[in-house]
Amino acid sequence: MHAISRYCALATVLACITFTAQAEQAATLLQAAHVCTDESETQRLAINEQLREMAKALAEFKPTTFCFIMQPSIAIVLLEQGESYVKFSHDTKIMYTFPEYVHADNDANVFAGLADNTP
Asked: Signal peptide span per the entry (predicted)?
């Protein structure tokens, strides 16, 4: 019984280590990425594509309290893939964007279908 509990504890630790290694992946933001600093605002925009397009147009004209346009080719670290948005880190800041603005590095692990694995 004691050996089984040790095995379960080891399996749990390995699962946690594996998840962390897969969750954080290097990536690049594409040209004129619509980025937000507030997760609640990002969730609200992710619900409706038309709302998201209007919010991006506004952010292109003038950045808002929570959202702005980030320049291309910015190296980021993917942290989590939500249902319709992405959580990432850049310069130790946590930010959010939408999957269409993220390009995962080719040599990194596939992260929820974001990586471009074309030869």
From this structure: 1-23
CA angle (116 as vertex; 113, 119 as ends), nearest 5: 135
Query: Where in the chain are the domains?
Result: 32-70+93-105
Q: Quote the CA–CA distance of 99 and 75 in Å, as a whole number.
A: 15
Burial status of residue 21 (CB atoms within 10 A of its CB: 0-12, 13-18, 19 or more): exposed
The predicted pLDDT at position 30 comes to 84
Q: What is the pLDDT of residues 40-65, one digit of tens each?
A: 999 999 999 999 999 999 999 999 99
The answer to whether the beta carbons of residues 103 and 114 sit under 8 Å apart is yes
Report pLDDT for 107. 45
